[in-house]
Specification:
This protein is α/β, with parallel strands linked by helices. It is built from 24 helices and seven strands. The chain folds into three domains: about 250 residues, no CATH class; about 40 residues; about 130 residues, no CATH class. Strand 2 and strand 3 form a beta hairpin. Helix 1 runs antiparallel to helix 4, helix 8 packs parallel to helix 10 and helix 18 packs antiparallel against helix 19. The longest helix has 26 residues. The N and C termini lie far apart (about 65 Å).
Length: about 550
């Protein structure tokens, strides 16, 4: 616990540097709730979701952020604090969950499980960003632990139903995962639950009753909008490939035969299977990870390299000793990849629902190896020493290379940029910020870092926004500050005093072709930690001097 808490809390507000979009969004919604009792869009205390950017985030994490934001203000530390707290508490929950799953095993097994989770790079990275995933893992793990304790206590059974219901208000994939875990747990331990059938029925009714609001909204705009945004079945590229193959086929074969071979159902089925299998590839888990993870981790696997070998051994051990406990962990692990497979071939945040299976399975593998030795302390000591080395190496990289190399992925620079915008706001008729190169929900950084009055924003005065076809909300203007997909053309800025802000590569279009060597005079630049220029501020009057 001391190790786990330390690495999750030390420097929480400064590393990762910057904030990702969803962190800023959750923090500003919490700030808005504190100031007005409404979210940024004027909805009073949302129950089932916050509209956010049009992605309809579930509400638990935002409400958990209200107290830290009230105490510390809208800061990176405040919005990350709930994640760090629940990430740390998950170490305890995993310890007790493992003890409950394997009550007749050595006490070393739950200790190892807690140790593996405490030093896990994936879990550390997720615990240090202000997103709902870590809280979701805690609630699911705590709900599973309470449900297992319910084999001997009615109160724990009811607590499991409540915790599982709360998890549905935390992260959308839990709507699939939690009913699956309920069903598998009750089946695998059915003999031990046989004296609690009435209580189990009451627990299930309690779970359904508490879940009704979120279940109903998942059948309406909330889920529908989010599905359109991330579901791979909306990938036009897959449909185009099917049509291209079918077009080539009909030149030689009957149309009906071509439709049988080349159709969207087989294409989507193949994509789904490919996505699912990639979640368990060594490249994704232990070697390279994914390009989307750079806001939480350096370029590396989500787990340690040694983890993958232990996972394979753990699977073998589970087949040799198929206890109900290890079967539940395997069912949990393999089903958890299903929701993310509908959207990607492995996304670090969406697949995080698979915790706490990884540390438990690794610990189970270590105990299996230890039983092959007369003195089990030797192999355990060697493995623990190896993991300590991996952990120290990761920790050093996380605090040195990671913030230096990957600062742009957590949108470092927006705090300085918003300060510049405020500094220059009275000197220009308009300020135009381009998102063509550094694409982000830029308006939220303006609201967050400027601590823009939520009541004024909710009023809509001076605000221009649009709803895009896929449901995303795009704020185009806040007073004189405009957020555009790209900088305006030359004809639009002539004889207008505008502060143009964009990436360096956006400005050469303003330079006359006869003077290609002419440098662009700028008011300021904003750089990342590595010294790369993220934004350049240019006075439109000075472009043609």
């Amino acid at each position: 616990m001391l190790i786990g808490v330390a690495v999750r809390f030390v420097g929480l507000g400064v590393n990762p540097v910057g904030l990702v979009d969803d962190e800023a969004d959750a923090a500003y919604d919490a700030y808005s709730i504190i100031q007005t009792g409404k979210d940024q869009w004027g909805i009073s205390f949302p129950i089932t979701s916050f509209r956010g950017f049009g992605d309809y985030r579930l509400p638990i994490y935002t409400y958990l952020s209200v107290l830290p934001v009230a105490v510390f203000g809208p800061t990176p530390f405040a919005v990350r604090l709930p994640s760090a707290i629940f990430g740390s508490l998950t170490i305890l929950i995993v310890y007790y969950l493992t003890r409950e799953l394997f009550r007749h095993f050595s006490e070393v097994l739950p200790l190892l499980s807690a140790f593996f989770l405490a030093i896990s790079p994936w879990h550390i990275g997720m615990s240090r960003i202000g997103l709902e995933h870590t809280t979701s893992v805690f609630l699911v793990s705590a709900g599973l632990y309470a449900l297992l304790k319910g084999r001997r206590s009615i109160r724990w059974l009811f607590a499991g139903g409540v915790l599982f219901a709360l998890s549905l208000y935390t992260y959308t994939p839990n709507i699939l995962l939690v009913p699956f875990l309920l069903a598998v747990t009750l089946y695998l331990f059915r003999i031990e639950y046989r004296n609690f059938r009435i209580n189990i029925l009451f627990t299930l009714c309690l779970f359904v009753f508490l879940s009704l609001p979120i279940i109903f909204t998942q059948g309406t705009s909330t889920a529908a909008t989010r599905t359109r945004q991330v579901n791979f079945t909306n990938d036009v590229g897959i449909i185009n490939t099917v049509n291209e193959k079918r077009g080539s086929c009909v030149a030689l074969l009957p149309h009906s035969a071509c439709r049988l071979v080349f159709n969207k159902y087989s294409a989507f089925g193949t994509k789904l299977i490919s996505n699912y299998l990639n979640h368990f590839s060594p490249s994704f888990l232990s070697v390279y990870g994914t390009s989307t993870q750079y806001s939480i981790l350096p370029g590396r696997g989500l787990l340690y390299m040694l983890d993958y070998g232990l996972l394979v051994i753990g699977l073998i051990a589970a087949l040799i000793h198929p206890t109900p406990g290890i079967m539940l962990i395997l069912a949990f692990l393999f089903f958890s990849a299903v929701p993310d497979s509908l959207t990607s071939d492995g996304q670090f945040a969406r697949f995080f629902v698979s915790y706490p299976t990884w540390p438990i399975l690794s610990a189970f593998a270590v105990m299996f190896i230890a039983k092959k030795f007369k003195n089990f302390r030797v192999p355990i000591a060697v493995l623990v020493a190896a993991y300590c080395f991996f952990f120290i190496s990761f920790f050093v990289e996380y605090w040195t290379f990671f913030p230096y190399r990957y600062s742009q992925y957590s949108h470092f620079g927006y705090e300085e940029l918003i300060q510049k915008i405020q500094e220059y706001s009275n000197s220009y008729d308009r300020i135009v910020l381009s998102s063509r190169v550094n694409d982000a929900k830029q308006y939220i950084y303006y609201l967050f870092y400027a601590r823009y009055d939520p009541k004024t924003f909710q009023s809509g005065k001076g605000i221009e926004k649009i709803i895009e076809p896929n449901g995303w909300v795009r704020v185009k203007r806040i007073n004189t500050v405009e957020f555009l997909p790209s900088l305006p053309g030359r004809d639009e800025i002539v004889n207008k005093h505008i502060l143009l802000i964009g990436a360096p590569e956006e400005f050469p279009k303003y330079i006359p072709k006869v003077l290609p060597e002419k440098s662009i005079p700028h008011e300021f630049t904003v750089k990342d930690k590595a010294g790369n220029i993220l934004f350049v501020g240019v006075d439109s009057f000075k472009l043609y001097l």
